[in-house]
Design a protein that fits this description.
Elements: H1 5-17, H2 20-27, H3 31-45, E1 50-53, E2 56-59, H4 61-88, E3 93-100, H5 104-117, E4 121-128, H6 130-138, E5 144-147, E6 156-163, E7 166-171, H7 185-188, E8 191-195, H8 200-211, E9 217-222, H9 225-233, E10 238-242, H10 247-251, E11 255-257, E12 268-274, H11 281-302
Parallel strand pairs: 3-4, 3-5, 8-9, 8-10
Antiparallel strand pairs: 1-2, 5-12, 6-12, 7-10, 7-11
Length: 306
């Protein structure tokens, strides 16, 4: 059995795009050339790797197996290329960082200070939800991922960074604002503005209410903490957000944190890499910087609860 590296690249492009024409555009090849290479690859392995479902091209079981190994192989190849580049100039590099939506309130500050110290390093920052972060880890797409609880079904290296308390917020003039030790039953009937399904915050909220034997009713689902904050200020319901996201609103007294049974929900930020994912010297330097700075950032935000 002979499989060329170019065939693996072509296969991965078709698997990614689920379309021969788009794969050809991605690789600057013609569509017939892509089709011929895939056919030769299938002949070499003796198995069908794709099948048609309407207008889509989807992977067979054999295709999915090859895709999993292909992701790792291309990641290793990219690591080799980056290593050779870094050996020429260790003061330059490119880092791809992906982070959970609510981490934007601290990861951007860390990135700004890091970039001032390392002007030759370019960082690409993708802010997205948990579902997308897990998919990126599966496919070795990001160098570093900042997220809540790492998925247990992947081989990962993770390190806890700091606490990420989820707090219950209300308009500053809400009747419960300022009260102490509010029973959870008193807020169970309230309307909530929450993150969309697929976010780590939403999953943590659902687990919390289930543990206390309650359900929550959402009037609105939002894809960002900023939208949730403005909706709560407008009186559309209570919200549950990361403490990191409301520093300004607490200082200006436009929002209040309610002292409710079981809150804050204690979660943690982690910095995560996929096992087998090579880290360039630039990526390793950024990882070490984030870990070193995390404790100071956490202490600053913890003061908001005092």
């Amino acid at each position: 059995m002979h499989i060329s590296f170019r065939q693996i690249q072509i296969f991965q492009a078709v698997a990614q795009t689920e379309n021969f024409t788009r794969a050809a555009e991605l690789l600057h090849m013609t569509q017939p050339a892509i089709s011929m290479q895939v056919k030769q690859l299938e002949d070499n392995v003796g198995l069908s790797l794709f099948e048609r479902q309407g207008k889509r091209i989807v992977m067979t079981a054999a295709g999915k197996a090859m895709h999993a190994y292909g992701c790792e192989l291309l990641a290793q190849y990219q690591g080799m290329v980056e290593t050779l580049k870094e050996l020429k100039n260790v003061h330059q590099g490119y880092i791809k960082v992906s982070a959970a939506t609510t981490s934007i309130y601290f990861i951007t500050r860390m990135l700004a200070s890091f970039s001032k110290m390392h002007e030759g390093i370019t960082v690409s920052l993708d802010i997205t939800n948990r579902k997308a972060l897990v998919e990126q880890l599966q496919h070795y797409e990001a160098d570093l991922v900042v997220m809540g609880e790492p998925p247990s079904n992947l081989d990962l290296h993770s390190q806890r960074l700091m606490c990420n308390p989820l707090v219950l917020i209300a308009p500053a003039d809400h009747p419960l604002a300022g009260k102490k030790e509010i029973p959870i039953a008193d807020i169970a009937g309230e309307k909530f503005v929450v993150r969309e399904p697929g976010s780590g915050t939403r999953a943590a909220i659902e687990r919390f209410f289930a543990e206390y034997g309650h359900t929550f009713s959402s009037t609105l689902e939002m894809s960002s903490n900023e939208s949730i904050k403005y909706s709560v200020i407008a009186g559309l319901g209570l919200g549950i957000v990361s403490l990191h996201s409301i520093k300004l609103e607490l200082e200006t007294r436009s929002l209040a944190v309610l002292d409710v049974q079981g809150f804050p929900i204690q979660r943690y930020w982690h910095i995560v890499t996929r096992d087998g994912k090579w880290l360039s010297p630039a990526a390793q330097a950024f990882k070490e910087y984030v870990i070193a700075e995390a404790a100071a950032y956490a202490q600053d935000y913890q003061q908001l609860l005092l």
